[in-house]
## 1
Amino acid sequence: MQTPFRLDGLKALVTGGASGIGESTARVLTAAGAAVTIVDIDRARAESVSGELPGSSVLIFDITGESAVNAAFAGIAGLDILVNNAGVGLVGGIEETEQADFQRLLRVNVEGMYLVTKAALPLLLASKGTIVNIGSVAGLIGVKRRFAYCATKGAVVALSRQLAVDYAGRVRVNCIAPGTVATPFVDAYIAKNFADDKEKAWADLHARQPIGRCGYPLEIAHMVLYLCSREAEFVTGSVMTIDGGWTAA
């Protein structure tokens, strides 16, 4: 039997690949044999990560800019795996959410994913490749004071399912919906919103998962690996939770 979950000879691209879930995903896919392209807007961090990953490369562009996205993909010769991971968050209910902030989340979390996916599709169709979109439990349930974030992650879930239907048999498309994951993204959220009591804020985040803790980026990355592997060839249109039991409670 062949070793499971190998990606030898495959080419992968990970948006937001310089930190958090994206960085862990780039590392795990590389370890499985893939040649990974890290997409980010933080050049220094992206190049630092790439320097530790044999066969990897870096592309620096803003996923919300159509011309920048298209120009970047024009230089890519082949692609087997697309991981749409880049995203931003926002704390606040509808009355607290300014229109500009709502539009910013839509641009990054939804429109950016649309632009990257559309640009990557010809390459993925040629390779009969796979797409993994990083969503959130916030796209499946209502999370208090996350109006804009829930709206955009709900869109990610819906567009993942729709693409899976349109391209069934040609490109596999799946979505991962993590609970709270301990990443620099969450660190920044706590620093901004709970600077006076970071310890309590972390305790509250851990507690909302029935398992009693936040997830780790590596745990999400290994689910990405499974969905990209030959072992998952029958999996498409799925929204897979990895949330410590949050959505089951």
Note: DSSP finds eight helices and seven strands in the chain.
## 2
Amino acid sequence: MIKKIQLPITDKDIEGLKAGDAVLLSGKLLTGRDAAHKRIVEAIKSGNLPFDIDGMAIYYVGPCPAKEGSVIGSCGPTTSYRMDPYAPTLMDNGLKAMIGKGGRSKEVVEAIVRNKCVYFAAIGGAGAMYSKQVKAAKVIAYDDLGTEAVRELMVEDFPVIVAIDSKGNCVYEK
């Protein structure tokens, strides 16, 4: 059975998810890769974060430029471990969900459990398919980073799998 979740995600939604569950996400999510994550952590530490991460999901992606008539270009997931040095700080400051590909460090799994968060896996190589699920996109911070700028996306039925649930169960270890 596929679960449908409206973003931003709630604690109740997260509690009902188990590693391996198939999920369709709809609503608002943020994007960011390593360069953006470094700036986000610096902004949190200085108290100057230019957007709210409380209750939000972030998709690890640097989308290709949009072709004429498209909302966004190909937008497949980035390997998540590159965000591992920053992810615990984001979760400790309100981020509730992450979307990427591949396994996570012990520190990230501990932060997921501590903060009752969730890590979703997206399918690598499916960027063109994912772009069709994006209904709106706008840069909200760090425009100078180009494709790695932080964006706000509105998605509809964005397919993911629960890779690590709020109890620390992980599909990569089963």
Note: The mean pLDDT is 96.
## 3
Amino acid sequence: MLFQSITYGPIHSRRLGTSLGMEIMPLEHKLCTFDCVYCECGWNKPVYKPVLPTRKEIYDALETKLQEIVNDTCLDVITFSGNGEPTLHPDFLEIVRDTCALRDKYCPSAKVSVLSNSTQLGRSDVVEALRLCDNRILKLDAATDTMMHRIDRPVNEQLTVAQLIQWLAQFNGDFTLQTCFLRGEHNGEILDNTTHEELTAWYQAVETLRPKQIMIYVIDRKTPEEHLTKLSREEMDAIAAPLVAKGFDVSISA
């Protein structure tokens, strides 16, 4: 499932409401620093020279779309997501600035959100851009290196959970932590971030980071790895319960 235009929607997001999507990655293929087993965009494919939409193309497409819908649609959010990791765009900071300016002009009540896999948080320009956004929705699918590598399959094989947590800590809790819970198998390796060991590590990470909100969700569309199991609502409630009891704001999409 790939998005074929710079803007798409508005669509109803199960987590964000009425959302106008922003696609600033290539329109023909996925470009990501992860190759997650559950990614609705499929597996990464080798690309010699990715072609990204330019800052001006993105600005013009967003302004045109907002002009079209501003009188008919009440947007809750403008969301950077789509065919990979949006923070990979070299002009990401300037694109976010443009988006905030256009939002203020045409739809000032809408929030600007970014769904990111957290791998570019070592870059100061990405951190600055994310601070400009209303919603920073940042991924941490597992809190042990073994399971993070099995589920998210980072392109940088040296990436560690400790690095991700250190980068996430820059926001002092002013972000939304997003985690997909699943079970299954890939290439003969067990995938399960719901075991006692995995949940204990994840709870500890949450306690360290203390995000303002936590979004936990299950697979909802066709996945590139077919041998994955969707958790039940009861199982997701049980995962959330210890954090809710401690006062954390936890939303569940199951």
Note: Residues 87 and 126 are 6 Å apart (CA to CA).
## 4
Amino acid sequence: MKKIELPPLTDKIIKSLRAGQQVLISGIIYTARDQAHKRLASLLKKGKKLPFDLKGQIVYYCGPTPAKKGEVIGSCGPTTSSRMDEFTPLLLKAGLKGMIGKGRRSQAVREAIKKYRAVYFLTYAGCGALLSTFVKRCEPIAYPDLGTEAIYKLEVENFPLIVGIDAYGKDIY
């Protein structure tokens, strides 16, 4: 299993990944779901500054539940990635290099992943409680009015992933 230290998710790392490969990532990732993506895309279209720099980063399609007392984060499983497909090519163009979620991606997203040399990772659906054990720190950084759909900065350690679509356009689906 390949171990990856973040940030950033570099072109060298991305080029070394292949669809179906299992990886463990450690470092910083950001959560963002539907409404956060809509806001990020709106800011990009208006030429405004984003709440965090997308360049070399990974976005996890996740809306973590509130943490119980003594825990870093609540359950944090992946959401269906296709709901972000309309926004993904724009975010990739702005420098986003990786996404984590579940399920198939559209043809436009697969082409954008190849064009911008990015990668789409999958993680285990239905295992949000287990996945939370790999999160060492959680900090809200944008859109607190969205509740669990706010953007969170997560520090993860050995977070388990599978390469779903590699930078060469190979798709496990």
Note: The chain has a mean pLDDT of 96.
